[in-house]
Automatic annotation (TrEMBL):
GO MF annotation list: transferase activity
UniProt keyword Nucleus, yes or no: no
Pfam (any one): Sulfotransfer_3
Top-rank taxon, per record: Bacteria
Protein name: Sulfotransferase
Swiss-Prot/TrEMBL keywords: Transferase
Organism: Rhizorhabdus dicambivorans
Length: 382
């Protein structure tokens, strides 16, 4: 790296300020994560195309942070807005969370953070104005370019500028997030992230949601698989949250999870993406997340609704109806028809056996059965 390395923290902050005209990034505590993340990435000695892709990606989140800080300053009244009984979807990655999230987002009683508003946080404008907003257009073009470089991400994440997005994208603007170890092999950052208390991250998430939903009092619909890892902090910030936890045998899910992470890391780190390192990291991360979530659940008065992946894939609309009944929500005939139309337009791809093997990532089925033995026994997979 040269003295003009674009991945130096001060260079990144200056570039963001030049793009947005905003130099206030809020509470400086975020610098601990940012500085450590960039130090780990710089140590990878990435080739120039990956340096540029990295600078662009992290720069997006610095821009989003500055926009959120500016918006919260100009609309400080939103900080007093309550977030009541959000419906939060959490669960092992590749356990149906994305399809469920998309399906529930069709119900107009919910609001969720649209993807482009996680990239450019502001009070949500009327839908008809979006095409005229520069930030919306820029996000649309950026997604098209990203999908062109990693087309499998479209199947796995259903990305679009106007679609509902994971809260992970807002959490990432705090630079203490599982997003970053999913995109680059950053072991020192990863250890720091996994050892920290995440309450400040979720308080930041709540404030950005308040900004986006400034003129909207509908119930929030949120989704982030990593919430399982920080469920205690989630419930401290959203104490009356209703949690939907999706489940799937980790022996089946982990190879697919690892392949998704490998695809992302290859976009930003090229040959530095190591399938076996990804396998070790993801198996450990999700074993801890599932154990933590179970401990929190056993001590919580919150309402939880469990969904088995196999049950959901067999009867998606029936599962949704049971979810609504469990939480006392109303599913109107009109919304049910819209959901059915969406399901008809997005049929589940028929499985033709496992697409990826544990061995592709330095894992074994036997080892995964042992690592997840307690969870598998609780769920009846063993």
């Amino acid at each position: 790296m040269t003295l003009h390395d674009p991945l130096r923290p001060e260079a990144m902050l200056a570039a963001s300020a030049a793009r947005t005209g905003l130099s206030d990034f809020g509470d400086p505590a975020f610098r601990e994560g940012l500085d450590l993340l960039l130090a780990d990435i710089r140590a990878l000695d990435l080739a120039e195309p990956f340096v540029q892709a990295t600078a662009f990606r992290i720069g997006q989140f610095l821009d989003a942070r500055a926009m959120a800080v500016d918006g919260l300053r100009r609309h400080a009244d939103v900080l007093a807005m309550p977030i009541r009984q959000p419906l939060i979807i959490a669960g092992l990655v590749r356990s149906g969370t994305t399809a469920l999230h998309q399906l529930l987002s069709l119900d107009p009683q919910f609001q969720g953070p649209e993807h482009w508003l996680t990239v450019a946080p502001m009070p949500r404008p009327p839908r008809g104005q979006w095409p005229s907003i520069p930030q919306y257009r820029a996000v649309s073009e950026g997604i098209a370019a990203f999908i062109a470089s990693a087309p499998e991400m479209l199947d796995d994440h259903m990305m679009s500028a106007e679609g509902i997005e994971e809260s992970l994208f807002i959490l990432a603007t705090g630079f203490a997030s599982n997003m970053w170890p999913s995109m680059w092999p950053v072991p020192r950052y990863d250890g720091w992230y996994r050892d920290r208390d995440d309450r400040d991250s979720y308080r930041w998430l709540a404030d950005v949601l308040r900004l986006i939903g400034k003129d909207d009092d509908r119930r929030w619909l949120l989704k982030n698989p990593t919430d399982l890892f920080s469920l205690r902090e989630v419930l401290d910030v959203f104490p009356d949250a209703m949690i939907v936890q999706t489940h799937r045998d980790p022996v089946e899910a982990l190879p697919s999870i690892c392949n998704l992470i490998l695809a992302a890391q290859r976009v930003f780190a090229g040959e530095r993406a190591d399938p076996e390192a990804i396998g070790r990291r993801e198996a450990e991360m999700w074993a801890v997340a599932l154990d933590r979530a179970e401990q929190v659940r056993s001590q919580s008065d919150n309402r939880f609704f469990d969904i088995e992946f196999s049950d959901f894939t067999r009867d998606q609309l029936g599962t949704v109806k049971r979810l609504y009944q469990h939480f006392g929500l109303t599913l109107t005939a009109g919304t049910e028809a819209v959901m059915q139309a969406w399901l008809d337009a997005h049929p589940r791809r028929a499985a033709a056996g496992p697409r990826y093997r544990p061995e592709d990532f330095g894992l074994t089925a036997k080892g995964l059965r042992q690592r997840f033995a307690d969870y598998r026994a609780r769920r009846g997979y063993a």
